[in-house]
User: What shape does this take?
Amino acid sequence: MAHAFLSPEWFAAVDKLVAEAGDLKIPEAMRAAEINITVTSPTGDKQAYVKNGQLFQGHRAEAPTAITLSEELARKVFVEADTAAGIQAFLAGELVATGDLKLLVQLQMEEPSKQQLALAKQIAAITA
Assistant: This one.
């Protein structure tokens, strides 16, 4: 069953897939990053955060970095695991970043693990 991207139901389904996936072999820079994410869309902004290499609903007050990006770009980065799209968008000014940008620079050197890419395919399959 497909769920609307970033909806509470989508987060619940993703959490279940992550739990079933086991060790995702998340690269160190991805595990170390803690980033608040604001996803803009015509239907209203959505909030999420990355911690320990995983995406969660809402924002964390402790997150040292924040990014704002479009829903289309968020889908590429978080559903399709296309890290290059995020880097290109940042360089083009389509992704706005504030706070500790050192974390984002470290992330650009990392590629998702095979396990993360396999999980991304499962997530894409349940994303409307």
Residues 54 and 98 are 20 Å apart (CA to CA). The longest helix spans residues 8-21. Strands lie at 34-40, 46-51, 54-57, 65-70, 96-99. The first strand starts at residue 34 and ends at 40.
